[in-house]
Every structure is written in C-alpha cells, then in structure tokens.
Amino acid sequence: MHLEQCSSTQNSVFSDLSSDIQNDLIKSIAQVIRDEIKSEINFAKFVSVIADETPDISHREQMSVIFRYLTKTGIEERFVGFFDVTLERGADQLSQSILEVIDQFNCKEKLVGQSYDGAAVMSGAQGGVQTKLNYNVQWLSLFLAMLTYLT
C-alpha cells in the first residue's frame, strides 16, 4: 500500500517529463549544500572570503569563491561556486561579483578577511578587487582591533 501511495504522489522537484533529470538532481543537491553553508555561516561569528580567477579548458574566465569560517567542530573552508567572469575581468566588475556572492550568503557584516592570488587586478593596492571591497565592506577586523586595544 505504501508503494502505491508513493507512485501516485506527484514530485514537485522532478517530473517524468524532464529530459534532463540528471541536471535537475545536481541542481537540487547543490541547493541543499548551499542552504547548509548558509546555515553554518549564519551561526559563525566571523567569515573570510577567498577568490581566485582562472581560465577553464574552453578559455572562459572563471572565478572561484570560498568562504572560511569557524564552526563548533573547527575551521571550515567551503567552496561556494565557479562564476563566469569572461566579460567582467576588471577590478570593478570582479569586486561586484564577489559582493553579490557575499550578499547571497548574508555574511557582509561578518567579514574579517579577504584573500586573492597575486594578480594585480585582484590584490592591487591602487585599484584592485581587494581595495574595491575595502570601500564596500565595513570590516569587522577594525572593530576587533579596537576592542583588543581597549581590553
């Protein structure tokens, strides 16, 4: 009887009409993982972002983004995705892309650090992504430094 109930129940995620059931499954699993990372970040006090840009095999520029934070079980580094930045390779565009990912994971107020490769567009002191993010994020590290000094 239980099997009959399951087979007659309509599944809201997958349908028999889907020609790309494998891709649907991958997208659903990815969403569950993203939700878990969001939950972990929600409970973390501090977060840092790690980003790197590199071409893929088809010569399209991809930026990988990783969040690093402390959980009850220790330090976690979670890969959150590859983002196509082929058309957005300047510091303004890359920093905007990173800010969008930070906003998706609701951790802007918790950021204490950022890490990039040595490319000038990423870590350039005059106008790199690192400098651009410093203008857009009120770094919690300033608060922590002041708090340490006062105590």
The SS-based structural class is alpha+beta
The total number of structural domains is 1
H/E order of the elements? HHEEEHEHHH
Cα end-to-end separation: 67 Å
Task: Offer a few descriptive terms.
4-stranded mixed beta sheet, disordered N terminus, Zinc finger MYM-type protein 1, DUF4371
Description:
The chain is an alpha+beta fold and 151 residues long. It has one domain. It contains six helices and four strands; from the N terminus they run H-H-E-E-E-H-E-H-H-H. The protein has helices at 2-8, 21-43, 91-104, 120-123, 129-136, 140-150, and strands spanning 47-55, 61-71, 74-84, 111-115. It has a four-stranded mixed sheet with strand order 3-2-1-4. The protein starts with a helix and ends with a helix. The model is unreliable at 1-8 (pLDDT under 50). Pfam families: DUF4371.
Which helices and strands, and how do they pair?
Elements: H1 2-8, H2 21-43, E1 47-55, E2 61-71, E3 74-84, H3 91-104, E4 111-115, H4 120-123, H5 129-136, H6 140-150
Helix pairs in contact: 3-5
